[in-house]
Give the backbone structure.
Amino acid sequence: MIGTRWEPSGTDAGGDFRCSSVAPVFTARHIPPFSSTEPPVLIPFPQGWTHYLVGGLTIGLGVSVLFALTGLIGGMSSVYSSTWSFVVQRPFFQQPRLVNSRAWRLAYAAGLIVGAFVWWLMFGHGERVAVSVPAWQLAIGGVLVGYGARLSRGCTSGHGICGLASLKLPSLLAVLTFMATAFIAANVMARLGGS
């Protein structure tokens, strides 16, 4: 929490902590597993918040322009299905909505990759970008996210950005489910000592 610090409750620092309110802290700290005697310090934006604001505004502007100029909704999970329509002849992948939209969806996905690369060149200071999450956790997370996107008939960009902007109730329910699941999974992994 912002403005919260956990301190030992006694003089022996034997693992009991009390909460005291302080000014916000802006340094990054890893959340220790339950077995640690060090208290968790939860910092919501350890690297600052400006790039999140700029990113959110840019994404909102991008999907707004896409919709205003073409009437198309800019979700990303459909890119996966429409791309498979090039090589898989199963009826699901050959639906007209996937086959007819695969060209612009590939261009849309390529724009995201090129945009990230341009950002890295301009603002990344030439530093390598990496995560400390093991590859197996990334793979499991990708499978679960892909399954969830198919189950909810859309991903976070389709439901969270485009669907909420259109005031769609199914999108609101999907986003609430995404967020609740993400909060639970992140906290469980942090407590278990995961990345």
Residues 13 and 37 are 8 Å apart (CA to CA). The two ends are 19 Å apart (CA to CA). The chain has three domains: 1-47, 49-130, 134-190.
